[in-house]
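Q: How would the structure tokens look for this protein?
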Amino acid sequence: MTKQPYRVAIIVLALLGIAFMGYLSYLHYAPEKQAFCDLGEELSCSVVNKSRYAKVAGIPFSVSGVLYFIGVLYLALAKYNDKSLKLILFSAVAFLGPSLYLTAVELFILESLCIFCEGTKVLMIALAGIAWKELGTEKFPLKNIMGALVVAVLLAGIIFLIHSSAGPGDKYDEFAQCLT
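A: Here is the predicted structure in token form.
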């Protein structure tokens, strides 16, 4: 039914994702710990991971990422079939929406990129590509991808709304500038 190398590739990618997101979760909770991936102001895992954008509803995105990749690993180890591949493909595309929103935040608001954050996006794209290759368009038609893209946009929009309504916003910018 399925080719073993694809399954192994999914397992390896899921383990890498767990490692990346696990490290970022550790950094999120570590008090003022500098990350080895802090390569300057424009490339800093710490700047991104400690920002107010690093979590939604009090949950760090890195913790959500660990859970996502654990789910993918479980599907690859215990339930590897067409149904699990469809779920891996759909979830990878759907969760890329919020991830790409966060990339925009990194680029345009924080002006600093997190190497591991961006690396996980590459892992998710690779997972989607492998699952798509395994399934083909007969078992996972384009309309399913369109559905996943709609979910991706909705999730990104919800996170944007949560972030934009959190905190004082621009209300205290002038006061903060005065303090500095």
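The longest strand covers residues 55-56.

The chain has a mean pLDDT of 81.

Upvote if useful.
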